[in-house]
Amino acid sequence: xxxxxxxxxxxxxxxxxxxxxxxxxxxxxxxxxxxxxxxxxxxxxxxxxxxxxxxxxxxxxxxxxxxxxxxxxxxxxxxxxxxxxxxxxxxxxxxxxxxxxxxxxxxxxxxxxxxxxxxxxxxxxxxxxxxxxxxxxxxxxxxxxxxxxxxxxxxxxxxxxxxxxxxxxxxxxxxxxxxxxxxxxxxxxxxxxxxxxxxxxxxxxxxxxxxxxx
Length: 214
What we know:
The protein is of the alpha/beta class and 214 residues long. The protein has a single domain, classed as Rossmann fold. 35% of the residues lie in helices and 14% in strands. Helix 1 (17-30) runs parallel beside helix 5. The chain starts with a strand and ends with a helix.
């Protein structure tokens, strides 16, 4: 059965745009039939711990001989790796916080980017290569090349690097910008632009959710 791994990380449980867009995708995925299953993690409401031991960055066979990561930490990491491995499609809600990723999402990344397991090290090995990953990012302002703040997005490029290059997944990014424009005097036009972009992201999410295949 096709399985979707759906992650949310926004601290806004009521009006989050990233949550709205991931929900639209997941609902469209479920509407394809009961065989389209979803594994869901709310990384904000149920946060993961920070990585307990630096040796967990490595596959067990590549760890230092003297390393002794806590058994509970190893078990949690394996659970997260199993969830990712079982997913035909990955859906990530990734709002920009202070120009970067929410720490809750970074903790998940640290658990699943494992040299010699999900990412290549001594030999080419990317078991997730080619699998679709849909990243839904929301941004207070805009950070495209035409914006004065171009180059200050340190969230989306990280996910493209880790999921796309390191893990070899096929990454699609859905962006909703100007999320705080309505709170800033004189930015009504940008607020309207942001709302239009949100509607476009919702439409793309529904379309992708109803059609995407591994």
